[in-house]
Specification:
181 residues, elongated, mainly beta, two-stranded antiparallel ribbon, six-stranded mixed beta sheet
């Protein structure tokens, strides 16, 4: 396993914990897709504590990402901030498959580790991706793409028909008259 600043030896973590305050290289998190890529290294502060055999990580991060506008698919750079937390449980202590158990909201963020090391990369990576908005626009005035030819209407105009064709079955609705209140 490659050594990096978010890889911790379990034996070196006490109940007092290990403080984390670092600027992690954005390449560590492998967020480099067309629709979301980090443009800045990740600032991370937090701690990881050991209670019996379980480890508890809680931290806050800040970075910057290039996203795509949901209307025109143009680039949008946004700051991403959030919390990352996780409970790490040694393999062998996980509940048996099919065993009946109570669902604990804190149990959603549980990861199981094998061996003597815990890697926080995926935990922080997931938190960064969850902090990214699912739909973002480059601005309120974004006109998007033409639904017929695909041209970016913020940059060019097109000669496509702008009228929306109405399904003939709904033509009768045009004759409805509404009273103004």
């Amino acid at each position: 396993m490659e050594r990096h600043p978010l890889l911790f030896n379990v034996d070196e973590i006490s109940e007092d914990g290990v403080k984390i305050d670092l600027l992690g290289n954005r390449e560590l998190f492998k967020i480099n897709d067309d629709d979301c890529s980090l443009t800045q290294d990740v600032s991370l502060q937090g701690d990881i504590r050991k209670i019996y055999e379980e480890l508890y990580f809680k931290g806050v991060f800040e970075t910057q990402a290039k996203l795509l506008c949901c209307r025109c698919l143009g680039p949008v750079v946004r700051s991403l901030k959030g919390e990352a937390y996780c409970k790490f449980v040694p393999k062998g202590l996980e509940p048996e498959l099919g065993a009946e158990m109570e669902i604990d909201p804190a149990g959603i963020d549980v990861e199981y580790f094998d061996g003597n090391t815990v890697d926080l990369i995926l935990t922080v990576r997931d938190a960064i991706l969850l902090a990214a908005p699912s739909a973002i626009t480059c601005g309120e005035q974004c006109r998007g793409l033409c639904s017929q030819c695909g041209v970016n209407l913020n940059k060019k105009t097109c000669d496509c028909q702008t009228g929306i064709e109405v399904d003939p079955r709904f033509e009768i609705l045009k004759s409805l008259k509404f009273k103004n209140k």
